[in-house]
Design a protein that fits this description.
The protein is of the alpha+beta class. The protein is 18% helix and 34% strand. It contains 2 helices and 4 strands, in the order ααββββ. The chain has a two-stranded antiparallel ribbon with strand order 1-2. It has a two-stranded antiparallel ribbon with strand order 3-4. β3 and β4 form a beta hairpin. The relative contact order is 0.16.
């Protein structure tokens, strides 16, 4: 399974994200619900990933796991 296929169900088009954010002033702070922003990284021709200092994923049984890599 490619990186693109792996993230297909958990993405939003950049145009939609910009549409929702464009009404806010540039100095507006953004909260990521307790996650610490790390960087934005290109993962494909039309795929970027917003990375955090924590990994968030579901197990095969559907349990949500958060691993903190900031320490």
């Amino acid at each position: 399974m490619s990186m693109t296929d792996n993230y297909a169900d958990h993405t939003v088009e950049l145009a939609e994200l910009i549409r929702q954010l464009k009404s806010y002033p540039p100095d507006t702070r953004i909260s990521f619900g307790g996650l610490d922003f790390y960087r934005v990284k290109k993962r494909g021709d039309k795929l970027i990933q917003v990375e955090f200092n924590q990994s968030v994923y579901r197990t095969e049984k559907g349990a949500l796991v958060v691993e903190d890599h900031s320490e």
